[in-house]
Automatic annotation (TrEMBL):
<feature type="compositionally biased region" description="Acidic residues">
    <location>
        <begin position="13"/>
        <end position="22"/>
    </location>
</feature>
<protein>
    <submittedName>
        <fullName>Sigma-70 family RNA polymerase sigma factor</fullName>
    </submittedName>
</protein>
<feature type="region of interest" description="Disordered">
    <location>
        <begin position="1"/>
        <end position="22"/>
    </location>
</feature>
Length: 248
């Protein structure tokens, strides 16, 4: 009598079963990773990075990258609506962690508890009153040239054109000061009359003398530019036409 052998079905060579096992292992690994993420959610990563040694800090950074890579693999393997909802929840947790890290370094204030006047200097040296003026805005941006040369005797340094700068540098110190207060500081002739203890008429006469000297030296410069085809602005051309017609 022939012996009968019992055959048992072994699905170890079945590729579908291998995929199922891989998915189960991946799912378990993802769940464990999410649990670790929940545990670390209340610990700022910046504190861990600052307190840890370089090797440990590198591992913490790699852990964050691995967590993102795991979520990306979950997203690639998602097929059903529930899978995609799990992926969305995982990314939401990452966004919450990122926002928490940003809030950790953000300086917040409460208008009710901390007024703007708190610890303000009474003499307004630290926070000057004319903070919106062009002068202070240039200083805060790092443009110090106008501030350095903000002086009647350095008037020519405030001009970019070399010809005009040369003309202004040839003025006398008195004419430089008057020109500076009139056209840079925008003082009125009455104000300058009080400053210099002179009449308003005398200030206007000196102003006319200064402008006449500047125009006399500026006309040949503009004429040279026009004759040689150099670039000139509309104001310069109108100025040249007006004064040439007047001289003619």
């Amino acid at each position: 009598m022939e012996s009968r052998e019992d055959f048992y079905f072994d699905n170890s060579d079945n590729p579908e079963s291998d995929d199922t096992i891989e998915k189960e292992e991946h799912y378990k690994w993802t769940i464990s990773l999410e649990e670790e993420t929940k545990e670390d959610a209340f610990i700022p990563e910046e504190d861990l990075l600052e307190q840890a040694e370089p090797e440990v800090a590198e591992r913490l950074i790699l852990k964050r990258d691995l967590r993102k890579a795991a979520i990306a693999r979950m997203e690639a393997a998602a097929r059903t609506q529930g899978d995609f909802e799990d992926v969305i929840d995982a990314w939401d947790k990452e966004d919450k962690n990122r926002e928490r890290r940003e809030r950790y370094h953000e300086v917040c204030r409460d208008d009710a508890e901390v007024p703007f006047e708190y610890n303000m200097s009474p003499d307004e040296i630290v926070i000057p009153a004319p903070i919106q003026s062009v002068y202070w805005q240039q200083m805060m941006k790092g443009e110090f040239l106008d501030v350095i040369f903000d002086c009647p005797y350095e008037l020519q340094e405030l001009v970019c054109d070399s010809n005009i700068s040369q003309i202004l540098s040839e003025l006398s110190e008195k004419h430089k000061a008057l020109f500076y207060f009139l056209y840079i500081r925008d003082y009125s002739t009455c104000c300058l009359a009080k400053m210099y203890e002179q009449s308003d008429r005398n200030i206007r006469k000196v102003r006319a003398t200064i402008l006449r000297k500047i125009h006399k030296k500026l006309i040949p410069v503009l004429q040279y530019k026009c004759d040689n085809g150099l670039s000139t602005t509309m104001k310069e051309r109108n100025f040249l036409e007006r004064h040439c017609s007047t001289d003619g």
